[in-house]
Amino acid sequence: MKRILTSTLLISALAVSACTNPDRFGADGMGGANAGAGVNAGVVPGSANDPTSTAYFQQAVGDRVLFLVDQSTLTDEGRATLDGQVAWLQANSDYQAVIEGHADEQGTREYNIALGGRRANAVREYMISRGIAASRLKTISYGKERPIEICSAEACYAKNRRAVTVLAGGALTS
Amino acid sequence: MLTRLLGLLALGAATVFAAAPDTARAEPLRIVIDDPTIEPLPFAVPSFQPESGEAGQLAVDIARVVSDDLTGTGLFREIPASAYISTVSDFNAPVEYADWKAINAQALITGAVNVTGNSVNVKFRVYDVFSGEELLDASGQGGLQFSGTVDGWRRMAHKVADAVYSRITGEGGYFDSRVVFVSETGPKDNRQKRLAVMDYDGANLKYLTESGSIVLAPRFSPSGDRVLYTSYESGFPRIYVLDIGTVQRRALQSAEGSMAFAPRFSPSGQTVVYSLSQGGNTDIYSMDINSGQSVRLTNTPAIETAPSFSPDGSQIVFESDRSGSPQLYVMPATGGEATRISFGEGRYGTPVWSPRGDLVAFTKQNKGRFHIGVMRLDGSEERLLTASFLDEGPTWAPNGRVIMFARETQGAGGSSSLYSVDISGRNLKPVRTPEGGSDPSWSPLQD
């Protein structure tokens, strides 16, 4: 039986897009050190205290916006978060972003992929309207395939109905 | 008389022919599947006769699989061998009908197995015990034989069971078929998925992909040799076609920056309908699988997905939220005006056209519950077959009488597994898989 030989490549590719992968923080740390030459002494480059780091983007700016059931309309809170993301992307112009759209488990697999696509696109269109170049922003939907919360209750569903802006340093993308 | 009536009795009658007095029996042995109050028909299937030295174990095993197939439909009930009065010691000896009648076996299945090297030959006959006659097929054929390899012995058992099922129900069989599905392990927030193919009853399972990337919704080709599915292996959802025999796969063409998913073959196997999501909008396209050329079939700002061809290839049923919530629509296979067919309460998705052409199976979401249901193509006679926290993704058995689907259980420890149910709503039961399962697709009957 023939085996599928590309699986390790696939795992690597997924790891690169995963925001919690330690290798990415390592790579970004170097990028942050270069880009952040003017940062005050005492800030660890690449840490959440370094405003040019992806960790800062995730934690201080906020890398995700949430949606109401079956909706892809941005909330006021979501727009405020995205304004912060836009400002960060304008200040860190060597970064690109993949916006990941997600849905909760209520709904069919196919519909939820399409719905996640709508959500990711709503974020992308908003960022473009605020001045980010379209060429820096890609979208993908995972539908209901990648929940972060696993209970079957609204408290979890609310966190799963999300669009997450995942940064990719300019050096990492061709 | 039996053979004449076999062809005449169609769906709709609602009688189970119970055991009748010896001479007064006027009706043939027959189960009408649509009958909602059906009692399983008692049958006996003694171990088949080994006609060569090496055939002993297979003669026992094949009879077991025949019995499991028939019993698994919920339409038949096996009488245990411990109740037998007669034994069958010669495939060609006259049947002692009185002995089988005495234990209320309405049908008797006998068979013989011959093994030569790696070749197996299986013969069988079916008897209508209460009329004292051999039960023939619609063309008047009685005993049949099937040949194959020792490794493929289960398929010969399934073929025998299909023939018995057809003679007694008047319907096509579905046992000699396979299911491709997504095999799942791990918790909800770290679910590992890989494609697997197995016999309809869970035997002979084989994995088709590794679990390194998300795979979704495999769909058999009309000839059962290829599978379309969606994979994230490139980083973005794309459609792949995989040859089951060689496990070679290739990506179908898709535009940069788009997501392609929900593919399904046309009845000719030459065309693929699928969803393409671009700029947040999802529409249905059709692609010539050889040239890779796509044609857009829907053009609205709504989500259009889950397309499925009619058996004659002329129409497509699909899901759209153009009305404000997901509903089912039918349009010509070349695109054009779509007609809404679902009007009940709730949200409808994943429509699949029955291989008989008479019904659409679907997923329905209503009041926090999910259902698998069927309706006619004009939306009438909607019937919900299941209800649970999350039932989804129906697929039809080759004879259009049974539906398989996935059921996900509730909560943090939730997992997904495969179930099947009759279109009457009877005989809901789990399908045996070694891990969790989702997105089943039932093959046509094998050659």
UniProtKB/TrEMBL annotation, chain A:
Signal peptide: 1-18
Pfam families documented for this protein: OmpA
Primary location recorded for the protein, binned into one broad class: membrane
GO cellular component: cell outer membrane
InterPro entries tied to this protein: Bact_OuterMem_StrucFunc (IPR050330), OMP_bac (IPR006664), OmpA-like (IPR006665), OmpA-like_sf (IPR036737), Pal (IPR039001), Pal_lipo_C (IPR014169)
Keyword annotations: Cell cycle, Cell division, Cell outer membrane, Lipoprotein, Membrane, Palmitate, Signal
OmpA-like domain: residues covered: 54-171
GO term, biological process aspect, one: cell division
Topology within the bilayer: Lipid-anchor
Subcellular location: Cell outer membrane
Entry-linked HAMAP family: Pal
Described purpose of this protein according to its UniProt entry: Part of the Tol-Pal system, which plays a role in outer membrane invagination during cell division and is important for maintaining outer membrane integrity.
Family as reported in the entry's similarity comment: Belongs to the Pal lipoprotein family.
Quaternary structure, from the entry: The Tol-Pal system is composed of five core proteins: the inner membrane proteins TolA, TolQ and TolR, the periplasmic protein TolB and the outer membrane protein Pal. They form a network linking the inner and outer membranes and the peptidoglycan layer.
Name of the protein in question: Peptidoglycan-associated lipoprotein
Organism: Sulfitobacter faviae
Gene this protein is translated from: pal
